[in-house]
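Task 17 of the worksheet. Students: predict the tertiary structure of the chain below and write it out as structure tokens. Keep your answer in the requested format; marks are given for formatting as well as content.
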Amino acid sequence: MRQILTDTLCRTKPPRAGRLEIADLRQAGLVLRITANDVRTFAFRFRHPHTRRTLRATIGGYPAVSLEGARKRAREMASEVAAGTNPIESKRAEREAAPTRTFGALAERYLREHASRHKRPRSAEEDRRNLSVHVLPRWSKRDFRTIRRADAIELIETIVSAGRHAAGNRVHALISKIFSFAIDAGLLEANPVARLRKRGIENVGRRVFDR
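Model answer:
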């Protein structure tokens, strides 16, 4: 069945048995499948760019994925196919690579490839402790590419507002080093905390120890 998909059509009654599949006339490749138990799913139907085999890539369920959102994703997939890429394979590769993009994974690389090699053992251990106590509980699973200046300020302010000014400044310096490490490793283009002024106030001439 081929029609211009509308939200009204997307909400049409499910079939009594089997499934109903509607191909969108406005966006090539986009289909909506409705099953007898009222499961509604958008998918992108395409030919493999090399084997020419007909394949189907799931986009998501309706209405969690809107019709406009489904069309946008179908356009993106069509562009991938036109460029010679199978969107199913690219999505699988993206999922497999995702754990390496977390801040937790980046921090572990920093500790292993920089701190343990170029810092004194005590300083490297302090980095590990500050990460464990102050940073990883909030950022461990965050994609480090999505962390913005405002996120860093919020993290540092949480520490400083608790009266731990020295710790806030140490964490500030540490995350800046980690982002600089990511730039050197070709993982980032810019440091989100570059030139950010320290927010903690430390007593000059007296070392402050944080417990």
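Marker's comment: Residues 170 and 183 are 20 Å apart (CA to CA). The first helix runs from residue 7 to 10.
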